[in-house]
Structures are given as C-alpha cells and as structure tokens.
Amino acid sequence: MNDEKRKKIAAVIVTYNRKELLCECLNAVLSQTRPVEAVYIIDNASTDGTPEYLMEKGFIDKPLFPEGGPEEEVKTLSLPSFPDKRVEIHYVGMHENAGGAGGFYEGVKRCQESGFDWVWLMDDDGIPAEDQLAELLDKSAKNNLLIAGPIVIDKDDDQILSFRQEDLDGLQNSVDALKRYAVHGIIYNCMFPFNGTLISTEVIEKIGNIKKEMFIWGDEKEYVLRAESNNIKMGTVITALHRHPARVANRAKVLFGFLGKVSVRTDPKAHIYYRNLGYQHGKYYSVKKKLKILIKFTLYFLINSRLNIKELIKFYRYYFDGATDRFLLPPKHKQP
User: Fold this and answer.
1) Cis status of the peptide bond prior to 65, with omega within 30 of 0
2) Which tens digits make up the pLDDT trace of 94-115?
3) How confident is the model over 46-57, as a mean pLDDT?
4) Half-sphere exposure of residue 147, counting CA atoms within 13 Å on the CB side?
5) Neighbouring C-beta atoms of residue 229, cutoff 10 Å
6) Could you give the 3-state DSSP secondary structure of residue 125?
7) What is the second-level CATH architecture of the domain 2-244?
8) Could you give the 3-state DSSP secondary structure of residue 305?
9) Cα dihedral sign for 192, 200, 281, 275?
10) Contact of 16 with 335, CB cutoff 8 Å
11) Are 139 and 240 a contacting pair, CB within 8 Å?
C-alpha cells in the first residue's frame, strides 16, 4: 500500500456549459481522503461563462479564449484537508467542442505525457464520494485491477443505479441487485465508464487513448471492449460510490419483446449514435451477434415505426460507416 501512496494520480473532468455542476464536482475531487496530484479540467468551448466562473471561485487566474487550438493555464492550490499537500489545477480551454470523447482524449493525452501513474475520469455532473479514490486505489492494488470503477448511483437515491447494466441477467437498476454479483468486493468485467473510472497509464500504453472521433455516445463502451479484448483486468468496486443524475435510455421492444429491445435515437444526432454502434459491433462482436442486432433494428423500423424505410436506410448508412471506420463529422456539434 505504501507503494500505491507514492503513485501519481490526475483527475480528468470534461465539461461543457455546466459551470455550477463543474464546481460541485471539482470540490468533491479536491476533498478526497486520498488526494490527487493534479486535476485537468477540459472545457469543451463552453459558452456559459465557465472560465469566468472558475476564476471567480479561485480555481484559475485568468480565462482562456483559444482560437487556433487548446490552451492551458495551471494554478497550484493547497488542499483544505491536507495543509502540506499542493494540487495543480490544469484548465484546458478547447477551441471547439470535441465532445466527451475528444475531451477525455485530450485529458488522457496530457496526463500520460506528464508521467502520471493513474488517470481518474469523470463528467462534470458526477460527484465522487469522498473516499472513492482511496477505495478504487486500494482495491485495485489488492486485486491487480488496471481499470477500476465505482458503483454509479442516482444523485437523489442511493439504491438506484444511474445506468442500467443490461449484460447482467435479471438486473434492473437496483444497487443491492448489482452487489450480489461481487466476488470479494469486486464485480469483474462490469463498468460504468467514464464516471469516476480509474485507469492505469499502463493500459493506455498498451491499448491506446480514447477514440476521439466518436465524439459522444459509445466512446466509453468502446474503450472497455478494447480493454477486454486485450485481457485487461477490470472491475467495479462496490465500496466506491459515484453520484450522477439517473439516465434512462430510449429502448423499444421489438416484436413485443420477443427479440429483446433496441436503443433508438432521433436526428440531428442519430448518425453519431448509430455510427458509433456500428464501429463497436464491427470491431468486437461476432458475425452472429451483429446479424441479430441488424435484424432487430430492421424489424424496429419496419414494424414499430410502420415501414419507415427512410429512417431504416439512414440507420444502415450510419451503422456501416462505423463498421468500416468512416468517421466524418461536421466541424461543430453541441453536446446533448
């Protein structure tokens, strides 16, 4: 454990137009029982006055308005709970919105280049419990995990999962139900990325950075699938908690549920979701599993959407763009 205490950890928080939530998240990160050495705030070209708000709260000294590329400002702060410890706040202003995927890519790249041992990833609307990092680091060391995540719970109800785990049989959104899958406090190959996810930079060196071209929706899932395909040991630590607003996916039953469900999206961002889905399936799924998914979506557009051929053709186009790794994005997007 003493060796773990000497390891350098940097938190990466990706933000876009949520300055109050960002500061709530940032305060929780700075209040950890195991302090981080640095925090990288990746601001995806916010338009709500985020840099001015951070300056007002004392986290940065001056706002940045990058035009030609990302710009960074660094400020060193003392930690209230550790008077002898100092933490570096790296505020990185992006010149355009790169989405969650682009934001995490930028933060991870900077952490790796700076020689950190672990990166701790989260969105601006999450709040880590004060002992979350300590629990993740401790259980990672004891169980040889290279990727460790907390249980992500609803901000308003400790017993409700913020994100459903469809891969676990019979699990709805109950925290207690999830914990039954734990082995010595770890639920292996179960993750809620990137919501307080701790990743060893050994993993990044082995499998690379986040796929920034994915922009939003699926970059975190793709990274977990990539890690699994490279036999990276990972799991969820049931004693580590991360609060996040609950998300309910728009999932529709196919043939009254006999073929399960599909997650659907509508324009103007449907192409991002379906393209990223196609990339994941094309790279990591078996032919049988891909065919089953294509049949489900085809039946959804033909039956549920009443012969919506136009949307079905769009789905095919977006899906096969991803499956063939064709990532063509307009220059600017807004996050949902």
Assistant:
1) no
2) 999 999 999 999 999 999 999 9
3) 95
4) 27
5) 11
6) coil
7) Alpha-Beta Complex (3.90)
8) coil
9) positive
10) yes
11) yes
Three-state secondary-structure class, residue 9: strand
- Is 165 or 86 the better-scoring residue by pLDDT? 86
**CA distance linking residue 196 with residue 177, whole number of Å:** 21
Is there a contact between 51 and 43 (Cβ–Cβ < 8 Å)? yes
> pLDDT value at position 250?
73
Query: By the 8 A CB rule, do 124 and 100 touch?
Result: no
- Give the residue with greater pLDDT, 238 vs 336: 238
pLDDT score recorded for residue 336? 42
Decide: 59 and 20 in contact? Cβ < 8 Å: no
DSSP helix/strand/coil, 206: helix
Tens digits of per-residue pLDDT, 113-138? 999 999 999 999 999 999 999 999 99
The verdict on whether omega for the bond into residue 268 sits within 30 degrees of 0, i.e. cis, is yes
Query: Residue 90 and residue 85: Cα distance in Å, rounded?
Result: 16
- Which pTM does this prediction carry? 0.92
Predicted pLDDT of residue 333: 43
Domain with CATH 3.90.550.10 in the chain: 2-244
pLDDT band per the 50, 70, 90 thresholds, residue 166: low
Q: Is 35 helix (H, G, I), strand (E, B) or coil?
A: coil
| CA neighbor of 263 nearest in space, from 321, 228, 304, 224 | 304
C-alpha–C-alpha distance, residues 311 and 302, integer Å: 10
In angstroms, what is the C-alpha Rg of the chain? 20
Contact 30/87 with Cβ under 8 angstroms?
yes
Rounded mean pLDDT, 320-327: 92
**Which is it for the CA torsion 216, 220, 223, 229, positive or negative?**
negative
CB 290, CB 281: distance < 8 Å: yes
Distance between CA atoms of residues 30 and 129, nearest Å: 11
CA angle, 276 then 163 then 297, to 5° = 40
Q: Are the beta carbons of 164 and 173 closer than 8 angstroms?
A: yes
d(CA 14, CA 50): 12
Phi, psi of 48 (to 5 degrees): -105, 15
pLDDT attached to residue 16: 97
